[in-house]
Design a protein that fits this description.
heterodimer; A: mainly alpha; 13 helices; about 0% strand
Chain lengths: ~260, ~100
Amino acid sequence: MARQEQKNSIFFQGAKDGVPVALGYFAVSFAFGVMAAEGGLSVLQAVLLSLLNVTSAGQFAGLNVILAGGALAEIALTQIVINLRYALMSLTISQRLPEKTGVPLRLGMAYAVTDEIFALDAAYPAPLETRYHFGAMCTAVPGWVLGTALGAFAGSILPDNVLSALSVALYGMFLAIIIPPARESRVLAGVILLAMFVSTLFSVLPVLKDITTGFSVVLITVSVSALAALLFPVKEDASPGEDGLRAPGEDLRAAEDGGKGASHG
Amino acid sequence: MDKSFLAYLAVMALITYLIRALPLVLVKKKIGGRFLHSFLYYVPYVCLAAMTFPAILTATGSYVSGAAAFAVALLAAVCRRGMFTVALLACLAAFLTGLL
C-alpha cells in the first residue's frame, strides 16, 4: 500500500511540475491557434495538429507548408529537420530509464517528448520514473491543446501584451533548471555560456542564421556537448545527469516558500 | 475536412512520432564508454541553454522586454527559485517593461 502511495506521489509530482509548462504552452499554442484560424483552418483542424504533434516550431513550420499548399515531401522534410532534436532528447531519456522499462511504456512516453517535458525529465534524479513523465504529460499537453483551441476560436480574447509576456515563461523554466547546478560547477557554467554564445552566433552570422532553429539546436547540442565531453569527461560511475540537474522535487520548493507549496498554487 | 489536410496531418504526426519513439525503443541498453556517457550528461544543459538564448530576447517582439525577462529569470534562477517562480517573474518582467 505504502508503495502504491509512493508511485502515485511520483505521478502527481510530475503533474505538478507540468503546470508551469502548461501555462507557457498555453501562450505559445494560443498564438498557433490564431495563426491557423487566420490561415483558414477550422478550430478542429488546428486542435488536431496540436493534439497529434505537440511540437511548437514543427507545427508553425508545418502550418506554413499547409497554407501554402506545399508538397507532402516538403512537409515531411521540414518536420525531420526541425524535430530531429527530439531524437537526441529521446536518446537521453532512454538512457535515464531503467533498462527493463517495457516497449509499450516507451511508446507511450514518446508521444510527449517535447523540449519542456524533456527538461523536466532531465531534472528528475536518475533513474527516471515513467510515471513522472506521464504525470507531466497529463497537465502539460492539455495546456497545449486548449491554448490552440482558444486561439483558433477566439483569437482576440487575450490582449497582445499579455500573450507576448507569457511567451517568455518556458525560457524562464529552462533557466531555472540549468542555472542552479551551474553554481556548483565552473565547468557546467562554462559549458552553458559556450552553448549560449554558439547559439547567438547561429542567430546572427550569415549562412548559419539561415539554418532552421530546430536543426541548429541539433548542431549546437552535438558539437558543444562533444567538446565538453572531450575536455571534461564525467566520472564513469555517475549515470547520465544523476549528480547534475537538480531534482524539481520537494526540497527545492520547501526551501523556496517555506514548504507551503505557494509557488505552484 | 478535406483529404489534403488529413494527408498533411498524417505525415507530420507520423514523422514527429517516429523521431521521438525510435531512440526510446531501439536504444534500451545503457551506452558504454566514458565519452558517450559524458556527452549524454552534457546534452540537457547545452540543449536547453541553446534554446533559451538568444531566443528569449526576441520572444516578446521587443529586445528591451526580452532582455528584462532574461535578466530577471537569470537572477531568480541563480537564487535557486523554483521553475514556476522563475517563469512567473520572467513573464512579469516582460509585461511590466512592455508597458513602458
